[in-house]
Structures are given as C-alpha cells and as structure tokens.
Design goal:
With 272 residues, this protein is an alpha+beta fold. It folds into two domains: 138 residues, Chondroitinase Ac, Chain A, domain 3 (Sandwich); 132 residues, no CATH class. The chain has six helices and 13 strands. Strands 1-2-3-6-11-10 form a six-stranded antiparallel beta sheet, with no helix packed on it. A five-stranded antiparallel beta sheet has the order 4-5-12-8-9, with no helix packed on it. It has a two-stranded antiparallel sheet with strand order 7-13. A hairpin with a 3-residue loop joins strand 10 and strand 11. The longest helix is centred in the last third of the chain and has 43 residues. The termini are far apart. The relative contact order is 0.08.
Length: 272
C-alpha cells in the first residue's frame, strides 16, 4: 500500500474566460497528490463546488465529491499528469459511466465533462495505468507555445485550438498527415520557446500578440462543414495563404511604403 497525502488549494476566479456565464465562470481547485515518493498536481476547473478529492493507487482512481447549483450544463475540466495515471479512462458520475471528451499533451490528460443534475454528486476518474510515463506522443500533441503565452491549458484560446485540431483537422486523413509532419517540426523548437516565454514576460506578451491573427483566421473553420479530403485541402491551403498574407505580405508592403515615403521626403528636402 502506497502512502498518499493530498493537499488542497482552492481559488475562486474566472476560469474559462471573460464572459460571465455558467460555461465561463467557476472554481479552480488544485490538489497535490503525493504517492510513492513523488508529487503530482491535479487541477479541476468547474462551475460548481468541489468539496474534496481522494486518490486510490490500487484502483488507479481519482474521486471528487462535488455539489452543483445548476440543473443543466454543469461543466468541468480536469488536468491530470500522465505519469500519475494514464491509459484508457472511465468517468463515473454517481457510480454510473458518463461521456467525456479527452485531449492530451505529452505531459497531461485533459478530461472535459458536461452533465445535468443539481445537488451533491461523486465524480470518479478511473485509469488503466499508474505511475507509467507515456511512451508515445499523443496524436494531436499539445500547443506548448500558445499554452505558455496564455498561461493555462484551460485558457479559452487553448481550448479553441484543441477543438479545431481534434474536431476539424484530425478528422481527415490529409489533416492527420499534415499534423504528424507539422508536429515533428514543431516539437523540435517549441519547448525552448515555451520555456523562454515563462522566463520573459515581455516576450510572452509579444508571442500572445503574434498569435492573435492566427486565432482570428482559424475561427473561419468553426463556420464550415468539412466532409471530404478535398474540402480539408481547400480550406487548409486557403488558411495558409491568408496567414502568409497577414504575417509576411502585409508587413512587406507596409515596409516598402514607409521606405518610399522616407525617400520622397528626403528628395523634397534636397531640392527644397
């Protein structure tokens, strides 16, 4: 039997964004799980109260005691280190299996759950692996640079990127092939950039500003249905061209116009 101790830190804040709604505002609870001489942080963000959490090493299970105030759309996201528990997950609400959405990075699993019912409940997360570091990288990977820029894996911008990747891009073979190739390139430098963001607040803000046009262009995918490989290729190429225009063509045109303006002013002064 492993010795397990749990430390709870609870903070009441706007967890999901700026709009004041049941989906946006809630509690962020942080628990430290100490087991087998190692420490792991569990983060649960929700629009309801979490009164306690226990962890069972033998059952590979996290148990949350919760109390909801809404009849509809109780929402939570739970961030779990993959080297604590991993593998196949089962989510139980009041001992009955309930649907969930799973997103993974190389280090964490993010479990999103929406359910109905007001009152006291138990929420259990059961895994198939315990204290096993995941050997394979998840199919989608994690956006390390954006996560460091916006400060959290549950930031609205990161959730948006994750949804676009999983629901749109990864839904087709061409999109999956693109992501596999892109990840090999992206993960060759993104950990270094993300670390520098955390060390340098000014650089972090610059990256956040740089990502804004990309996020704006990707919102277009929310309003289209991609039902074929050709549509994925068409929208994908269009977005690439749009971002080339935003990040390269527009600045180049601006620089050329500024240089022309400066040269004209120099000539005017010379012959004045």
């Amino acid at each position: 039997m492993f010795f397990i101790s749990i430390l709870l830190i609870t903070t009441n804040l706007a967890a999901f964004g700026a709009e004041q709604s049941a989906r946006d505002v809630g509690f962020v609870n942080k628990y430290m799980v100490n087991t087998d001489g190692r420490s792991f942080e569990i983060v649960i963000a929700a629009n309801f109260l979490v009164s306690s959490m226990t962890f069972s090493a033998n059952d590979k299970m996290l148990k949350f005691n919760i109390e909801t105030g809404l009849e509809k759309e109780n929402i939570t996201e739970i961030i779990i280190p993959r080297d604590l528990i991993d593998g196949e997950f089962t989510v139980l609400l009041d001992n009955e299996e309930t649907p969930y959405k799973l997103s993974s990075t190389s280090k964490t699993s993010v479990i999103s759950i929406i359910f109905d019912g007001k009152g006291k409940h138990t929420l259990d997360i059961v895994a198939t692996k315990y204290l096993e570091i995941a050997s394979e990288k998840p199919s989608g990977g994690g956006c390390l640079i954006a996560t460091a820029a916006f400060g959290s894996e549950i930031a609205p911008q990161i959730q948006f990127l994750r949804e676009i990747r999983d629901d749109k891009v990864m839904a087709t073979q061409s999109g999956s092939a693109f992501m596999n190739g892109f990840n090999q390139f992206y993960y060759s430098f993104s950990p270094v950039v993300a670390d520098y963001e955390r060390e340098n607040p000014t650089f972090k803000e610059a990256v956040k500003l740089t990502l804004t046009p990309l996020l704006a262009s990707l919102t277009l995918l929310q309003y289209v249905d991609i039902d074929s490989e050709s549509e994925m290729l068409g929208y994908g190429i269009s977005l690439i061209l749009v971002n080339i225009g935003i990040y390269f063509v527009a600045p180049a045109i601006l620089i050329i116009n500024i240089r022309k303006r400066v040269n004209i002013e120099k000539l005017d002064k010379k012959y004045a």
